[in-house]
Each structure stands twice: as structure tokens, then as C-alpha cells.
Structures
1.
Amino acid sequence: MCSGQAITRSTCYPFNIIGADMHHFSSRRKALRSFVLATAVAAIGMPALADQGDDEGGGYRQGKLFMSTNAAGGNMVNVYARATNGPAILLDSVATGGNGTGAGLGSQGAITLSTSGRYLFVVNAASHTVSTFQLGSKGMTMTSVVDSGGLSPISVTESEGLVYVLNAGGDGNVAGFRNERGVLKPVSGSARGLSVTTGAGPAQVAFDKDGDVLVISEKNTNVLTSYKVRRDGTLDTRTITPSAGAVPFGFAITKKNVVVVSEAAGSSASSYRIGERNEPALQLVSPAVVNGQGAACWIAVTPNGRFAYSANAATSNISSYAIGADGTLTLLAGQAGLTSGNGALDMATTPDGRQLHVFASRAPQQIVSFSISPNGSLSKIGALNVTAGAGLAAN
């Protein structure tokens, strides 16, 4: 195991990188179904599944986890049912129509949900494509597989139908698409480069909460590149912000547009605010708040924007931070949660803010599940053995 004193860029990616009455009735019906389910589950000693809403048969638009296998012989999306008091449960495995690399991508956001919750986007790094799925009451339907607009896509983001893909291969670039009923259509003139022509080592792309700014983290150049998004979906001014810590990796953006970035080399996290009037400039708030662990590479924030969590790959644990009203970061616990010595990579918080799920990549590979208390502390509720994966999303 790596120590916090010997962290390199390879630690976080150890493989090669390539009506009222009716409403009342519906509520009563939901309550009755939940009661019956909980009673049955208790009787057989299994964890209760998270509420699936009104979709009969376990609809795919609520209470699920999605992770890509990134398999070289055919990428798949594994779908898991979330449990309220135990580990996730595998429901299905669906082909993406493309190939993964069979190794770690060294990125965050390899799989992502649309803001509407109706669509799921997955990168196929070895095929240089992106797959789109529509989520319904009975499962997932693949609606398109398109060229990513570059080489080796590793991260994808969406805001109100506008999709951008981060390509790590070749010179590296981002490329834009419009999601038209599940089919991605390229936005003409949207492809833009990174801070340097080669060797940027990008890790993630994401929109701010308004969809007005696009942010990219670059590991090798130690910068955050951001673009203003034009009304036509193309990108305008590019701004380069030096990272407050070495090797900026994953990041998450709160509903108040506070950007929380993990930094692998010093196992730290920094916070920034998106510039006023939706300018692309990132304004530093808290620089490199260390957690005392090893290789903080992935970041997740709670939906209410109060807490952030870093997955520390080298020390197989999770650190917790409080996010102040002004975006200030305060370390709450260096070891807020443990993954039993098998790593800590991709993470996802649930939309209700009650759970955090973590992919632990070393044998046994697992999804480790935690409950989140109102004060931000974590309690482990279970772990499920899984196949290799890249990216993790929750609805």
C-alpha cells in the first residue's frame, strides 16, 4: 500500500490510461407497498431496498446505482438496487455497444445521469464512443452510440440536453453534443483543446449548476481549465486557473457553484467559486486542505452542498469536509469511513443525501455503502463484491 509520503500520479490510476384525492390514494398505496416490502425483507433477513417510487417492477429512474465495467471485450453497465440498510444488489448488466480499456481510466465522470434523470451517458474509451441509454419503468434502452469527437473518452457531463465529452487521447479535447430524445448530435464548432496541446493529463469535465461554465481538471499541468458556454452550445473564452494543490483530479460542484477539487499528490482538497455573472474564472476560497491520508483522487458532495467527501486511493478510506456558506472547506474527519484495505475510487451520493457509495478497486473489488448522518459523519451499511468498473452514478 502506498503511503501519504510517496504519492505519484499513478497512485489514483494504477493501470494504463488510455388531483389531491388521487395523490392521497397514491401515497397510501406507496406506503402500503413499502410496508409490505419491508415486512417481507425483515422476514427473510435481507436489506430493505430504497423506495422505487410509482414505477412498478423496480423502475430504473429511482433508487439505482450505475457503474460501467470498462471491459475490453465489451463494455457493460451494471445496474444495482440501493438498499436502505445494507449492501447494493445487482439487478442487471447491459451492453454499451462499445469497448472499454480493461484498465483504470484515471478519471471521474465516466458514467453520468442527465439533469432530468431520464438518460444515462457512458464512455467507451477503447472504441472512442459514447453510449446513451433511456431509463424507464422496466429497464434501460440504448438509444445511440456515437463518436466521442476525439480519442479515448474518459468523462462526460450534461446540462439540460447539452452534453460534453472529455477525450484524453491524442492532443486531448472536449467535444459537445445535443441530446435529441436519446440520440447525441454533434454541436458544430464545439471541439476545443485543453491548456496545452499535448500531455495535459485530463481527469474530469463538468458543467456548473447553471450550465453556463464548463470546467476541466488537468493532472499533469496542475491547472483547472474552464470555458464560458455560449447559447448555441459552443465554448467561448478559456480561462486557466493554477491548482492550489498538486495533481488536481476529481471535482464536484455544489448547487451554489462552489467547486470542490481533490488533489492526489498531497491528499488534499481545495474549493473555488465560479466567477460572478457566470464568468469562467475560478476564484480560490480554501487552498489545499490536507486530510492526512493518501492520494485523495475522487470527490463527492451532498445535494444540499454542506459536505464533501474525498476517496483516498492509497489509504483505502474516505475523508469528510464541511462546506461553509462562502465555500470555505473545513476537515471534519481524516478517516470518516474505511473500505477494508481494498482501495477507494469512484463515489456517488444519492439524491436524498442519505447515502454515499464507493468503488473499492483492489481485491475483493466492491461497492462499499455508507449512510450519511445529518452532521456529515459516515456509517458503513454494507459491501457488495463486483467486477472491475469505472465511474459510479446514483439516482
Note: The chain has two domains: 19-48, 49-394.
2.
Amino acid sequence: MSYVATTPLLARSDTSWFTEWRRTVDWGLLGGAFFLIAIGLLMSLAAGPSAAARYGYDNPYFFSVRQTMFAGAGVVLMLGTSMLDRAWARRVAAFILFIALALMVYILIGGGHEAKGAQRWIRIAGFSLQPSELAKPALIVISGWLLAQREQYPNQIWEAVAFIFFAVTVGMLLLQPDVGQSFLLTVAFIVTFFVSGLPWKWAAAFAGGGTALAGLLYALLPHVRARLNGFFAMKEGDHSQIDRAAEAIARGGLFGVGPGEGHVKARLPDAHTDFIFAVMAEEFGLIAAIVLLAVFALLVLRGFRAAARVQDGYARAASAGLFTLFGLQAAINLAVNLALIPPKGMTLPFVSYGGSSMLGTGLTLGLALALVRGQGTRTRGRYG
């Protein structure tokens, strides 16, 4: 009888950086992200041709091809940042935040690209980049690190510095103007503050300041006032987008009208971006929509669970804030599609068409994966 020697796929003596990453990365989170990206590519084939025809492109798969490119770039960014250790995650986040803020200043002084009355984009090699999408996750990581410094160097200046970075970023978002992203970043920042162990007086101050700012924005920004008044009055303003989205979801029923048979993608200008969920619900039905919702919910819950197990204060607070960014953006987009809140111009992470959204989401989850790596592994001293 002869015996064949076998070698384990991941030998315990192998300590290369790639093997360490494979051992320590959360494959459940990574698998959920890849599933959402695959759904996004599928939906780009469903909604892309109608959008291409609406915008006058000869190639019906113009948006599908671009979304594939964006998805590839997002995957590379997510995997690349997930391989960083916590120190390098913070350094990379600081570099990205500096560059993103500089680009946002450049946009505000007239160097940006205007669309739909807002200046949020910069044109690079034929593509539009929204720097704020990269600034959000970078700010959360830096805030988590700054707040964690109180454990070693007790001093009130750490909270003040974190708040200054936050105020500058949100201030530039409001000047674009982008109220929806400002709200999203504020909630994620508050979660980061709360998880880092700051006293309730800070939460009360944020609540009071946020309420006052919301009232000020309502009074000063006509488009904010018009959206809110129109949504709650339901007799004022243009409700065509949310009405058509609601009709499409209802029309889909349990199993949908079939791939390619939906009507909403030809009637909504933002069907391939903000209202991609309505397209999916119409063509694939309620069951498919519930599966998508479940994936988002499970991914966020798993992320919070992983963050709660992290012993390092910086990584725990920052990862909780990052998963809040991801989950709350998905919740806002879905709420708009279900006519629960006014339109916000916010994409569905990994599913909606958009390069900036894909890169921003890839960076968000990549940094989060880097911060929660190594729970329960032999590399706990380095990562956990």
C-alpha cells in the first residue's frame, strides 16, 4: 500500500502577509459584499439600456460596461485596504482625508463639475469623482483614532480636534449643498463618539446642535424646504419619482414581471442610480427584494458584532462608525424607494450605478474589514 503526502492549503508555518490576511479577514462580510456587487452588475444590465437610450448613447450597454469597471476598481480598493493593519489603515485614511478635503475646496472655489444645481464632482479623465464619498469613511477612521487617544493621553483636546475635522467636512458638504450626506456623516460620527465612551453631555449637545442646524437649513435652503413641504403636504411639488417607484414595487408582486419587462426604468431618470431598488422589485418581485434587504441587514449586524469584539478602542469605535455609514445609507435609499422619506439623491451601496459611490463603499468596507480583522486568531496581538 502506498501513501501520498499531502500539504495543508494554509500551512501553520506560513506567515506571509497574504496568508495572514486570509486567516484573519472576515469572510462572511467579504462574501456579503461580493454578493451585493454581483446584484449591482445584474441590475446594471436591467436598467442600463434604458438609461443609455435616455441619455442618447448609441451603445445600450454603456452604463453596464462602466459599472463593471467601477465594480472592479471598488473590489481592488476594498481588498487592498482590508489587507492593511490598523496603524496603516489610519495612515491611509489620513492621507485620503487630506486629498479629499483639498479637492472639495477646489470644487467650491469653482473648479468642480455642476449637476442638478449642486457642485459635488470633479472631472478626471472623462469620469466624475465625488471626493466627499472618500472623505466620509476617512473622517470616521481618523475620528475614532483621535478619540481613542484619551485612553493614553487624557486631554480634552482630542474631542475638540475630532470635532473640528467633522465640522470642516460637514461644512463643505453643506456648501455644495449636500444635506443628505451631511446627515449621514453626522449620525456615523455620533456613533463613533458614543462607542468611544464619551459622556452623554456630548450626545445632548449634538442633538441640540443638529436640531438647530436642521431648522436653519429649512429656513435658508429653498430646495430643502420645497422637498419637505411637498413630501408632507403630498399636494405640493413634484412627486412623480417616488410615486412611480411605489407603483413599480406594487406591480412586481411576489415574483416580479420578469427580467427586462419592467416599465419604471424607462420612466424614471434616476432608475439606474437612486431608484434601482424599485427596478429590482418590479422585475424580480418581493421575494428578491426581501433577500436583498436581508443581505444588507445581516452584513451590518455581523459588522457591528465584529466591532463589539474588538479590544482596541480606536478600531472598535471607527469600525462601528464605518458600518453605520454603510447601513444607514442603504436604509435611506430604501426608505426613499418605499416613499417613507423625501428623495435624498443617495445611492444603494454596491447596487446603484456610480463610480464615486462604488469607490466610497469599497473604501468604507475595506477599512472596516481591516479594523475588525484577527478576532479569535493567533494573530490577535497584532490585529485584535
Note: Confidence is low (pLDDT under 50) at residues 1-7, 376-384.
3.
Amino acid sequence: MESYVFAFIIPLVAVILDSLFGDPQSMPHPVRYIGQGLDIFEASARRVKLNMRVAGWTAVLLFSVGAWSIAEYLIAIPYLGVLIALYLGYAGLALGCLVKDARRVASLLDTGDLPGARQALSMLVSRDTSALDPNDVRRTLAETVSENLNDGFVAPMFYLAIFGPGGLWAYKVVSTMDSMWGYRTDRYKDLGYAAAKTDDVLAFIPARITAWILLLVGKKHGLAYEEAKANFAADAETMESPNAGWPMAATAWLFGGQMGGKAIYFGEEKEKPILGPIGKMWDKHMIRSLITTCKSSGHMAAWIFIGTFGWLQIIF
């Protein structure tokens, strides 16, 4: 019975809770503690003048193994462990929060509140949103929703379904580390190197699964499936990241809206590769449809993972 609980019930209920309630912000969240721990580690490494590349690899190993070990210890507690496992699964998924926040940005923009939309969007992206026009806001929102469908839901769900809460939180540690340190700035280019490379490896398969599920859901919804299938992989390969471009390019071609182009990061202008049909703008209907499609795609991925890996765990 316990095998069925951990293979099927916990990931299934975690997905349902995420869909209904989003991120459990009012409760103790592991990501906050991970972030605080990484800040302390960085400060200590810099204080003792540790080689930053070495520090980065040490952090990846220490925090990922630590997260896995702590999670496995907690879920092994009799009776209470099942509830802890459920919470760790739920807290590690972020599709509900992504959908809620994206809809808020879209609603603010649709009602003419451009400053409010920029501010709300700034909570989802690392780029400067202060000078974005409505077209840029929608394009940026489309980019972050499609990319974070993988980073915030499909990839952690993949590891939850295969390895349980311990595997999910080992992945989340690396993902959090990459989001904090994975920048090519003077401060982080060495410290964040290990996190960026490890995240590239861990997200490689989930990113491609995300893209293909987006295509299948898009085909069902009558979107430009054939055009997307013919073009998205070539566009994805133009990105610096080996993974981010896959769900983004699939989405851009499905909906016929351009992604990429000029963006401001930390005061510096960056020209990102163009994904999708050049010059095609995102409108409010495309954005609403995109959010719904991403939500459906995430849930499809979850059911596939739970069904496939759940039975494999029971059998083996």
C-alpha cells in the first residue's frame, strides 16, 4: 500500500493542490530556506576567498545531496512522513502560481494599467520591465510562461514521479541556485558555473518533453501544429541555453508570435535570438490562449509521468 501512496497518490494530490491553491506562500517554504542557505554559503566562500569555481561545485554537491537526504529522512517518519511527502511534493510545483501571476499581468494590461502590468511582470522575470510597451510586455510574458512551464513544473514533476520528494528537491536546489547565481556577470560567472551546467543536464530531457507536449496540446486546440513542428527545433538551437529555447520556440510557432529580440538585463542591453515568425506581435487573445494551453500541457505531462513512472516503481 505504501508503494502505491508514494508512486501515485502523493504526486497526484500534489498536482491537484498546486492547481487549486498555487504556491503555499503563507507556509514555511523550502525554497526560502534554500535561498537563505545559499546566501550564507556565498558570503562565507567570499569571506575566506575560496576559488569561486570550486565553491560553486561544492555548493551543488552539498546542497543537492543535503536536500535529498533531509527529504528522505522526513518522509520516512511513521505516519507523519506521508503528510510531509505530500507537502514537499506540492511545494515543489509552481504551475498554479505561474498561471495566476500570468493572468494578473494580462488582466492589468487589458484594462490599460501598463505601469501595473510592468510591475507585476517584474516579479516573474529578471530583465528590466520599466520601459516596456504593451507589445513588449505581452512578448515577455509569453516567453516567461513558456520557459517556466518546464522549469517550474514539468522538470520538478519529472523528478518527483521518478525519485519522489527527495529527487524533486535535489533538482529544485540546483534550479534555485541557477536562478540566483546563473548569470554571466563578474560576480557570478564563476560561482554560478556549476549550477548552470548541472541545471542544463537535469532539464535537458524535461525541456524537450515540454516542447512536444505543447505541440500535441496545440494540435488538439487547432493551433499551427505543422508549422511549429517543422520550425521549432531549429529555432531552439539558436539559444544560449540548451533547454530554454525548446518550449519557447514551440510556443512561438504554435501561436504565431515572435519571441526574442532586445532585452535589458542589469542595465545592459542584450539581443536575444528570434524565435517564431519574425515581426508577429502577441495580442491579448493569444496570451490568454497561451496561458490555458500551458496549464493543459503541464497537467498532461503530470498524468503521463505519474502513469508511466508510477507503474514502473510498482513493478520494479
Note: The chain has twelve helices and two strands.
